[in-house]
Automatic annotation (TrEMBL), chains A, B, C, D:
Cited NCBIfam families: PRK13197.1, pyro_pdase
SUPFAM superfamilies documented for this protein: Pyrrolidone carboxyl peptidase (pyroglutamate aminopeptidase) (SSF53182)
Originating species: Thermanaerovibrio velox DSM 12556
Keyword Signal: no
Protein name per UniProt: Pyrrolidone-carboxylate peptidase
């Protein structure tokens, strides 16, 4: 049986929960055909989050790794297109780090593109009635940091594993604190990510459909 | 046993579903203490929607009437504060009517305030983790029309019934068509409205908490 | 020569300027045909702001009164359709008042509609290239309070004067403090309100064009 | 005397004007100390826009190149942090091209970071009262294409020139067509970009202040 590794961050920024962690926990152990989902909680801390994922890859030997993070303010599930080689933290991470314009890996390339079929993932979620879009920025905080660190490891480690990052909205219970902000219920994020995983299994190459934006 | 009447509109504006109708259907027959929820589908047509509700009030003798409508673009469940005496339709209703700046009732007052405890309803929903806020405009389309028509009838008919209107967001399956727009799942709208109904039963007078806005 | 009275509030909510006051000051003394613009600064204080305007009406005998206020978060100049008879202050006014759900005038009607040709004002601004829309809510703070108080006075005083309220966006210098919030430069708000005034003079009855919204 | 080259696109997407072109035209020939601004109009066409800029660099020998583009929906002037090596056009460019997920340069790196002092540019604009923020995505259309193409050329050509891209909002006259969308007047965009240019001249290294986002 094959393994797909999903990760979710612990809560940050004063939140009591992280929708990413809640969502991947709900998917832990689920099976799609010959593939089982394994789930890992990672700390919202630069460096450490990458180390934790790299260690789990060594232990679990997944063929694909999908990291998931919270995107406060977004209304949709957004597979990320690209990770950039910079840390520029507007707020502190969970161990108080707040780097400004530091490279994540001084020896790494400027960016990595997701090797997941992000267009197919978006289509699969929409076909299930779950709002989804491609995102062209994963920000410059720990989410982008982990995304970049993961892709850097997969690039160097060289065994053909694929990987990427998906942002999901606040849970409704979080949005209560931010009147007017969009949210998505756990049932939706779980169903959406499950559909996206199925798309990963079904699409070795991505769909040729536009997911771009003018800005 | 007492009756509370809830109404939901049929789909309009090219939509295949109306979240209001789906939500109230899911609440039909539910019981809160000594009160049973009765549900009515109303057409998204000026005039007719009011007549249908008035007829149902006559048949069911509810002590409270809560009309529910779709608010595309909003991220929260929003009890409405006020209905205004004007029809100004940006789009046609389901029978092709498109009045511009016509009074709903030339003999009626300029506006009616909801007689539901809207602040208590918002608090009850938030305490359940459902995003909610007071809204100060129900628009100028059929939702406001029904809200005004209901309050006009309750004012004239004079038997102490209370009533009001609640707007709810798109369902996720609708928002798929409008990338970036917020939505709320049916489970949330149902749980939210149920909590709001409980607040109606529990609060004869409204809470003294601010639900206002600068604009 | 006829007089049109315009008012603008002093700054509130921690702001150093109020775009409404800056804009009307820039229009003070301007002449349109046989009409001169007179300008009044009013305090952002419930009650007092209305008294100040009523006093100025007595002194200046204007045929029209247009009150202007700041609408943080809006991107357009928005003539208001309706004032509602309630004070529900989310923040304190400039003398510390923070009423919750109190009627502005216990003997007044639930609402007043603007007696300005708001559709013609919007069209006139758009034809000059200034973003503008009808708004269906003036909020529940001092702006709505003054709008209601003005219309109440004009209704009771009974000499055929017309009046209403227009909200305008933050100035760019204010929006610097709120990343992502829209703004409009003083040149635009001045040109827009001047075009709107011309529309008031040119349109005794309003245009029959839709300015409504679904919600 | 030194030269700084600024470029603006011709209108696209059905627009009659492009705020970028109008803004740079207004800056043409302006002098800051020992530096003169030279301006170039570029076509909103993949490939051609880069060729035009490369040709102008050869003719004008600028020490810095700043390309400017329209960002419909944004409320601020946004210096871009990073260009990514992909064309994914949601709409056609001005010659009908609509590539999906094609690399801009198959031999180029995945991304280039701006070599302009983007934090200093933002600070300079804000200090003049002009809303500005760092952006972490230039989209995947012709703006990103030109940004990438410029940085690729500067990287290869190797003479120490610096370069980058700045997005600016709709002009008010454009936003009239999109009710609710933010805009910025030409006076503001001109003053803002002029302040940003001064920051380019004054800051050989960028400020160490956060301009990041969580997502």
């Amino acid at each position: 049986m094959k393994t797909i590794l999903m990760t979710g961050f612990d809560p940050f920024g004063g939140e009591a929960v992280n929708p990413a962690l809640e969502t991947v926990k709900a998917l832990d152990g689920r099976v799609l055909g010959d593939t089982r989902i394994c789930v890992l909680e990672v700390p919202t801390v630069r460096g450490k989050c990458v180390n934790r994922v790299v260690q789990a890859i060594g232990e679990l030997d997944p063929f694909a790794v999908i990291c998931v993070g919270q995107a406060g303010g977004r209304a949709e599930i957004t597979p990320e297109r690209v990770a950039i080689n910079v840390d520029d933290f507007r707020i502190k991470d969970n161990e108080g780090n707040q780097p400004v314009d530091e490279p994540i890996d001084p020896n790494g390339p400027s960016a990595y593109f997701s090797t997941l079929p992000i267009k197919a993932m978006v289509e699969a979620m929409r076909s299930k009635g779950i709002p989804a879009s491609v995102s062209n920025t994963a920000g410059t905080f720990v989410c982008n940091h982990l995304f970049y660190g993961l892709m850097r490891y997969l690039d160097v480690e060289g065994k053909g594993r694929i990987g990427g990052f998906v942002h999901i909205p606040y849970l409704p219970e979080q949005a209560v604190r931010f009147p007017g902000q969009p949210s998505m219920s756990l049932d939706c994020t779980v169903e959406g990510l499950f559909a996206a995983l199925q798309a990963v299994l079904d699409n070795r190459t991505d769909l040729r459909v536009s997911g771009g934006r003018e800005c």
